[in-house]
Specification:
Layout (H helix, E strand, L loop, with lengths): L3 H29 L4 E9 L11 H7 L3 E8 L3 E7 L13 H18 L3 E7 L3 E8 L2 H13 L9 H11 L5 E6 L12 H10 L9 H10 L1 E8 L11 E5 L6 E5 L3 H24 L3 E6 L5 H15 L2
Parallel strand pairs: 3-4, 3-6, 6-7, 7-10
Antiparallel strand pairs: 1-2, 4-5, 8-9
Helix pairs in contact: 1-3, 1-4, 1-9, 3-4, 5-7
Amino acid sequence: MIPKELLKKIRQIEIRTRRLVADSLAGQYHSAFKGVGMDFDEVREYQPGDEVRTIDWNVTARMNHPFVKKFREERELTVMVMVDVSASGLFGSGAQSKRELAAELASVLAFSAIRNQDRVGLVLFTETVEHYLPPQKGRRHVLRVVRDILCHEPRFRGTSINGALEFARRILPHRAIVVLVSDFLAETNPSRSEIMAHLKRRVLHSETLGRISAGVLRQVARRHDVVAVQVVDPFEMVLPKLGRLLLQDSETGEVVEVNTSDERRLHAFSARASKTQDELDRLFGSCGVDALRVRTDQPYERALSDFFDSREKRRGR
């Protein structure tokens, strides 16, 4: 039985995202993600401005004036949304956690997909793949996707993005759109959503990349259209001034004193976060992966719309 509060949240996400999709994003999605080929549709008379290469010479010869072939896009695509549900996703310094934002983004993409007659599947992963929902169409299926993201209780707390990518490579026999939604943090034991514990984890561990194997990512990207959606919280980029804190690692018992009023520490934290982000951007670029970054403290609509537009322009060259 799903709690009433959660059902209300799912319904709110549906209302917001369906309106957004209907108003603008469905068309942008269609333009940004093309079908896998073109099917012959019909023959019609040539009109000024038609591409000469589409002239059907057999029909033209019979009718004694030019006719062109008209094609339609072979549209049906498979969109596999892969969501990192490790413990770090529960964190949110404001009203929305990273997990909730991930669910809303997945909802937008899923409703855009079914509006364009595409199929949507779901993979939820932590240190292992914990849940798989095969691709289907329809509103009820999209609501199942959103519900599963919000309701799933992970068995593990860490993250293995490589394992998730390997799973996608095994289960997708044909070319698909693989949307990888994660914060790309991969400590072995991410803390819960309390701000203090989260700060401790960021201060104690300088390595924040998801330890993605460039080889694995490149292999998947060669066969599929991979889009990386990075969900971040502002406290993961700029350390807030909260004074002197004693923080304890819940797994190892390690205690560290952190002076968040120390300007040098604040600068070092921000510099490390910036360097890590640059490394992640370079990794995506070198593997041919389109990337989008969204923040829990900012509306995602503009970022998603700009992403669709820039992708359409790049792919249309």
